């Protein structure tokens, strides 16, 4: 009988071990595949976006004459004006107004090259004519053309001229929108979770609310954009394309995530802590304030920051409320028109000029850096508060 039992169990054990090894290798293969595709994505973004952080400049003679304001081309010789950025030329009268001593003089200045020259130097497809290519080649040999760090990308807003287009207004718009979202969603979400988990009676009404909150966390984000359009813009008259309406729309989208994550953090606190507090004669509010909330705060902060990081990368709801408009200047308050980083990236991806391809990739890199930084802050705060409490 014992021999028969061994005969029966040994093949079953071998089969179980074999299935376990197969499952282990399948999981490892899935992880390796995910890391491989992530590496390909990041490598391609860096490869395409890195050139956008440098820009071509041309050292040229500029004549500050009386005709400069009406005809900026008169400040250059016939060889150089065709390869200099038109946007940079338009700033010459302002330069002369700020420094009157320049009037009537000739100065050697590093001028911003146009997009086609920049793409030609970087070895990308371009539209330079043969004569212009010869001029650029001659200037390269003379050392009159250099690639410098592209401060324009971080200090200017969007522009119809590729070499003058920057990401600054989108960054400021995203920060103002995120500030509104954080101000509304985080306190309301955390307080709602505390009430539902610690104070609300367990009845059909509260169960109905919790089910709907869980469902709201899973619906498409564009529906929140339609809700924001109907309520905030049409009904309440909030300015369209403003960080205020964008922030409130994203707050609606972030609230369910913050509530669910905060409730999970509260549930992770052992029930013995609450029972010990009642045994000492403390009220429920005192127990929540002095014991439960400090212990659950790391999880709440982590959930809130992850929800905000998701919100800053959203595009669909903000398109509905008009935050994809052409906004060259950065907003100075939450009521002015603004755009956001994802919307700016989406706009650049549809532009025909070759230079916008690298600017799109560079914008993605900036957005990814901010998102990774926010997730890093969430991890740091979670560890810090876990160590403290």
Describe the model:
The chain is 66% helix and 6% strand. It is built from 15 helices and 3 strands. The chain has helices at 2-49, 86-90, 92-98, 115-121, 130-142, 152-155, 168-199, 204-216, 221-235, 243-267, 271-279, 284-312, 316-320, 341-349, 355-388; strands at residues 54-63, 106-112, 145-149. A 3-stranded antiparallel β-sheet has the order 2-1-3. The chain is elongated, with a radius of gyration of 30 Å.
Please describe the structure with a list of short key phrases separated by commas or semicolons:
389 residues; mainly alpha; MetI-like fold; 2 domains; three-stranded antiparallel β-sheet; 3 strands; 6% strand; elongated
Give the helices and strands, then pairings:
Elements: H1 2-49, E1 54-63, H2 86-90, H3 92-98, E2 106-112, H4 115-121, H5 130-142, E3 145-149, H6 152-155, H7 168-199, H8 204-216, H9 221-235, H10 243-267, H11 271-279, H12 284-312, H13 316-320, H14 341-349, H15 355-388
Antiparallel strand pairs: 1-2, 1-3
Helix pairs in contact: 1-15, 7-10, 7-12, 7-14, 8-10, 9-10, 10-12, 11-12, 12-15, 14-15
